[in-house]
Amino acid sequence: MRILFTGGSGKAGRHVAPMLAEAGHRVLNADLVPLNDRRVDDLRVDLTDAGQVYGALHSYAGLDELTLGAGQPRFDAVVHFAALARILIAPDGETYRVNTQSTYNVIEAATRLGVPKVIFASSETTYGICFADGERLPEYLPVDEDHPTVPEDAYAMSKVANEACARGFQRRTGLDIYGLRINNVIEPHEYARDFPGYVAKPERRLRNIFGYIDVRDLGRMVLRCLEVDGLGYEVFNVANDDTSVGTETRALLERFYPGVPERGELGRFETLYSNAKARRMLGFEPVHGWRDEVGAPS
Question: Which residues form the signal peptide (predicted)?
Fold first, then answer.
């Protein structure tokens, strides 16, 4: 497939965009700074500028495409990861503006130009827990995609607005638009650096609902989204199968979530940020776990 990937120079994108290229796809990274990876072409784009977004979606993916002599090929998919990645990078109003305007521009241009599939990064923060002022408990556990999304911070508000935008464009066009409510993204080098501390003090992971997603498994999730057609508009939690701490799930429930209703039986270390929908509808199967990386008992 020929893919426009936005935000390919960010924490997640710099891993996922090359993974798509390694899988055989042609990837053009649209970002303010280049990725500088030989497998991925770069195009400097301000995604808050609608004209630049339309131009990017009409672009050649590289100089080699000129040799075809057949004009500019159409993109088969857009993977939209670009964003201000959390609160307190920019003032709240700017965070909301950049994230919502860029997403509107990308999805509008993609759907008007007939790109058949858009995959966009939403967030675990939509459930209102990660960046809450004080502690907010889930309404039930494990948290699945039916859980209410009532955030109180600008970043998560922008992600909820983006989901509404995507759903509206999908309803109008009938194209496939999939949103990924991505849990805390972990790069391979972060396991040895951070996870022993999480084992020692599991409360540090409370705001992430004790979940995580290995960036390589996030790439696997994007590949599954590219491969599975015909779902229309869907949102998916994206998390690894287990928690990010050494404490057993039952003990986490008793210590941190007393009185929170439980839906279904949970395994010994099973994630509280449910990935069951992605498994069921996409065949998503994470393969990278922190216990293997750190050598913790399972």
Answer: none
Q: What is the domain range of residue 116?
A: 2-294
CATH number at residue 282: 3.40.50.720
What share of the chain in percent tops pLDDT 70?
A: 99
Residue 30's pLDDT is 98
Q: What is the pLDDT of residues 96-107, one digit of tens each?
A: 999 999 999 999
Q: How high is the pLDDT of residue 201?
A: 97
Q: Which of 173, 166, 60 is nearest to 116 (CA)?
A: 173
Q: Using an 8 Å Cβ cutoff, are 272 and 141 in contact?
A: yes
For the chain, where are the E strands, in sequence order?
A: 2-6, 26-31, 41-44, 77-80, 117-123, 176-182, 185-186, 213-214, 233-238
Secondary element (H or E) of residue 93: helix 92-112
3-state secondary structure of 199: helix
Rounded alpha-carbon distances, angstroms, from residue 145 to 149, 241, 248, 256: 9, 16, 23, 21
CA distance 229 to 158: 27
pLDDT tens by residue, 119-136: 999 999 999 999 999 999
> Across-strand partners of 289?
none
Are the C-beta atoms of 7 and 81 separated by less than 8 Å?
yes
User: Could you tell me if 41 and 66 are in contact, meaning their C-beta atoms sit under 8 angstroms apart?
Assistant: no
Domain count, the chain: 1
Convert the pLDDT of each residue in 204-256 to its tens digit.
999 999 999 999 999 999 999 999 999 999 999 999 999 999 999 999 999 99
